[in-house]
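Hi F.,

I've been meaning to write this up properly since the lab meeting, where we talked about keeping a consistent format for the predictions we share between groups. The idea is simple: the sequence comes first, exactly as it goes in, then the structure tokens exactly as they come out, then a line or two of notes. No screenshots and no reformatting. I'm using this chain as the first example so we have something concrete to point to.
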Amino acid sequence: MPPVLNRKKFLTYLGTGTVALAAASTGLDGLVKSAEAKTPFHYPEYKRPKKGPLKFQPIEPTTKDDLVLPKGYKYEVIAAYGDKINQKGDTFGYNNDFTLFFPYEDEKDRGLLWVNHEYISDLFVFGQTIKGGYSSEQIKTMLYNQGGSIIEVVKDRNGWKMDTESKYARRVTGLTPFALTGPAKGSKAVNGAEIVQGTFANCSGGKTLWNTVLSCEENYESTSKSANLDETHYGWVIEVDPFDPAYQVRKHTALGRFNHENTCMGLSKDNRVVVYMGDDKRDACVYKFISKNKYNQKDGKKNSKLLEEGTLYVANFGEGRWVALTIEAVQKAAKGNAELLKKFQTQADVVVNCHEAAILLGGTPTDRPEDLEISPFDGSIFIAHTNNSNHGNFHGHITRFFEKDNDHGSMEFQFAIFAAGGIQSGFSAPDNLLFDEDGNLWTVTDISSGSVNTKIWEPFGNNGLFVIPTEGKNEGEAFQFASAPVQAELTGPCFTPDEKALFLSIQHPGEETEDLANPTSKWPHRSGDKMPRPAVVAITGFK
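Output, unedited:
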């Protein structure tokens, strides 16, 4: 395996159109050091990072069919595809992704874990590749195994495990009725629907300030087509309350319809809710939503109403400003174009056809903006731009946004390239992001299963989990913490509040398998199991 060169580089933005950064992905030296973005790391109103040394000895890239961790760390499988999660007999869905831990207030080592389920594999779910369309029973199975799982997890003297006797454990699936909220509810743009069937293609998500989960519908097109469902009912951000089975699960149309990766929520200086979002496809945009009304902590879960009314914005990188996606602005930009004016008649049309409206109004097409996270230490926003082969950005980069006056409600921003993927940094295709108490940024990688360990991606081995300091002498330098099983992707990292355990999804191990009798992976290597199974693990060993 060729050596991975280790070099930290803080690159400036190249060009004002597509965020291609071909030079960044090749690891070229000497790229404009004069415009490096340097800001005070800590602001008084934010948490203060501990700035401790790395707590692990970094590992080397590997092709081993296991979840490989540094010395002193171990993992336990909490739940895998097909496992029973409650006494009712519900089972854990397929291709788990985003995880979010909700600890009990009075018991730190027990809580609920929300887990997304993104898509299925015909071969491992049905035992064969389905050709010529799915039967009605197969459609039910396909929809059931997507969406989300709510499981109860507990730590005992033997480690973390799932409690299947939980009164909260349940599934939210492609069969669950959802209420629409916001401008598209009941509109012609969604064919009059107020209640829609199910959620699927659930990729990542985020937590609200009122302790519910937001889950994002990403690549919904194939499932909606296979299940003969109305495509306009998917591609939204959903909201679920893990602790309340009676809570009406909902889709917030004010946040726009596109290939949602995740959400991260903050507050503007005037106390309005701000939600940052990325559209995970090539040449797609970065968005934020600002609520019309103000957040009141005392209102608890009633604050969900704030996501029903407000303004959706798209980022114009070339001008460093946020552009409001309003029907008035769209119609003005479409003046003289009869086809566009026919399509965009109401705000519902804008949110349903969000990407088209964003491009029309000057939103910058970027390189697959996936996870966005707000730094709890300085309020800057980190964006994982995974890659874009259309423009030669094969390894991706992580962008750092700085809102004017450090206000999430600002209409202007600056940005920098915090870290660029490539052999110089040791990682390729950054995806989900997470901060730890030391101020480090954790990122998993998303090299496609068909590309991993081949051609220009061969030096990286299997997909991995990396830690990148956000300040100090190692700022922007990646250190590998974990390596995924064969053809798997690590997704949805989530710490417990004390950072003594890390929940992590292992998604699509053995995805390139063509013959069930000869799978390319058998992870998690359960006794007697002849197939790989996506699963959620708990990693321990943190001091």
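Notes:
The two ends are 32 Å apart (CA to CA).
The longest helix spans residues 136-144.

If this format works for you, I'll send the rest the same way.

G.
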